[in-house]
Amino acid sequence: MAREIQILCVHGVAHGDADALLAPTWTDAITAGIRRWNPDLAVRTDFLRYDDLFDHAPLNALVYGEALAKLMASGIIHGIGDWFAGTRGLEDVPDRVRWTAGMIAQWASEDDLRERLRARLLAAMQAKEYDVVCAHSLGSLVSYDAFARNPEALADKVFVSVGSQIGNPFVRDCFAGRITGLARARMWYHLYNRTDHVFTSHVRVRAENFTEVSTDFDKPDDAANHDALAYFNHPNTQERVWQALSGTAVARSIARTFNKMKAVSRRPDRRALLVGINSYPQPAYRLEGCVNDVFLMSSLLQECGLEADEIRVVLDDRATTANILERMHWLLDDVPPGGERVLFYSGHGAQLPAYNLGGEVDHLDECLVPWDFDWNPVHAIRDKQFLEFYSQLAYDTRFVAIFDCCHSGGMTRDGGPRIRGLSPPDDIRHRAIEWNARLGMWQARQLPTLNRSLARSRVGDDYLGSNGATYRLCRGVPLRGLENRDYDRERKALRHKGPYLPVILEACGEDQLSYEYRDGAASFGAFTFSLAKELRQSRNEGRNVSFQALVKLTAARLQALNYQQTPALVGPPRIVRHAIPWAKAT
User: What dotted CATH number matches 270-576?
Assistant: First the structure.
């Protein structure tokens, strides 16, 4: 008798249980994909039914609107925003997007619902011995949630997540800010289409039994690009997933070869990305010392042991938003355990008033100012973008971000020192102010606190800012807050420590300015120049300073030079109090 493979399928979008075509079309596509490589293999599929668990709270326009607002605010929006340009309401949004958004919001906000979904899936796994779980969209969330909390249920089985929202920041909050690998699984394949508009995302997991399979497609008859069958029939799925599941000797050989290639092609353990922008297109924005800062920092890092080919530099008109993000991928994608990474930025910073889906300004985004910055979020490097790059790093990664800029505003003043921060133009400034009729004057708007539990904690100012409504650059705090009981409960249940947190060195405090300094005829950032002086002096004297000590020494030097800026330091206490790992004494 031919060997069998048993597959449990978990559908995604709403009404999957009632769709008479879903089960046969899925079965035909999966069977054809596997039997292409092994015609003698019998493929058996079962389908998990779970729509009834959502019936207690029927979806309506209010639920849709709130769900879309939360998901779009999460930072993973792909092309969804395009559907709102020129539309008159939710009726113009594709049904699949609305239904998926509503059900994801229900799933994410109702602990009891998630518990019932987990129980149903685990009961199905206990009732029958499955080899593979293949889950699409919302079904992948249900499946990952169950397996992350009950790893034994997936022992020696394969998980295939298809068009999944697992990595979406809004969803990731339900997993206490971090997506971990499924250690007991034989393999986890994540099929990802970067043009899928239904809140899908990369999954940044580094594990021998995990691989993300690129399955880009663009269906003219499917504006969402979210169709499970298109994922199943993609050539990369055929070559990488169905062939591996066919169990043939060729498939096993290819899998072994692929794993060896991954091991051989591991990137260097040390990397640094240095960005400096003097020549902004607008004459009033231009600075003098940022390019010098980059060369100073490069020389310092090479003195500390980094090789020249481990350092990448992007300067002036090449430091566009797209180029900086592309080099961020080089810096922070596929970082091996124990890897060391340094990001340095010298240029302008800004605060960007941000609209929510309802058209109201509800927070401020601190951002770096690329060469092509135009006060549009599309051309800014914001906190949430940093979070996507580093939050899933291995805990033993050493990542340091150094920013010589400020975010409280300011421009060059005649006769005074040059300031590294932009004041917004009046139309942007108008978003964050309101008219006080009683006083007959304009005043700053009181924006809502982004996270009440975090705002009340001792770390609130460091992470959200003193006004409670600012996403501080590179902080990337989970939405539930560092001291929230639910967050801690979820983190312990999932057996991880929450998202990775980097060490952040900033030129000045939240309400201060970052200045330039002239060393003879050459301009530098006052902070960068002082930091380099102190680090070199410590190394020459045989002292291995900590980040904490280095920042104090730099602050004292700036004060001695009469600069009104105090460098800031944020990071895990156990890291910032110990010697800087890549700056050993000579």
Answer: 3.40.50.1460
